Amino acid sequence: MSDWTLTKNRLFEGIWEGGLTRDGGAGDTPPKIDVTFLGNAVGGVQFKEDVANDRWVMRIPIPTEAIADGVQTFLIADSVTGTLLDKITLISGEVLADDIRAELDLLRAELDLLKRAFRRHCIETM
Question: Which end of the chain has fewer CB atoms < 10 Å from its terminal CB, N or C?
Fold first, then answer.
């Protein structure tokens, strides 16, 4: 079991950001965290101390080779204990065709189309 707790903050402009807190305080030494994609280490992972909130801010750049059709998963683990802290899952492309969120988006687009046609019909019949 790891002493670290990872909380996602955001994914913005290809950078995943999260906060690392530790039982008993974050300490002065950056955490030892492994980030892997398809079994390979992800480069460019950064840690910045956030003294005001007693935590470390972790920034993970999403590599361009991970932006592809299908489901892509990154694993974030404590290097010392091997405990999985979190995962980042990216879903895109054809795999979304049957996803309920994609269906809902399609329904919204069709509803907007129907609203425009109905309004146009009402204006023409007045």
Answer: C
- Per DSSP, 111 falls in state H
Domains in the chain: ranges and CATH: 4-93 (2.60.40.10)
pLDDT in tens, 50-59: 999 999 999 9
Two tokens at 66?
């991970």
| For the chain, the helix, strand and coil percentages under 3-state DSSP, each to the nearest 5 | 30, 45, 30
Which region, left, alpha or beta, applies to residue 84 given φ > 0 means left and ψ of -120 to 50 means alpha?
A: beta
Q: Using CA atoms, how far apart are residues 31 and 79, in angstroms rounded to an integer?
A: 9
| Residues 20/58, Cβ–Cβ less than 8 Å | yes
Going by the DSSP 8-state scheme, the letter that residue 91 receives in this structure is E
Pairing of strands 55-61, 15-22: antiparallel
pLDDT tens for residues 71-112?
Answer: 899 999 999 888 999 999 998 887 766 777 777 887 888 898
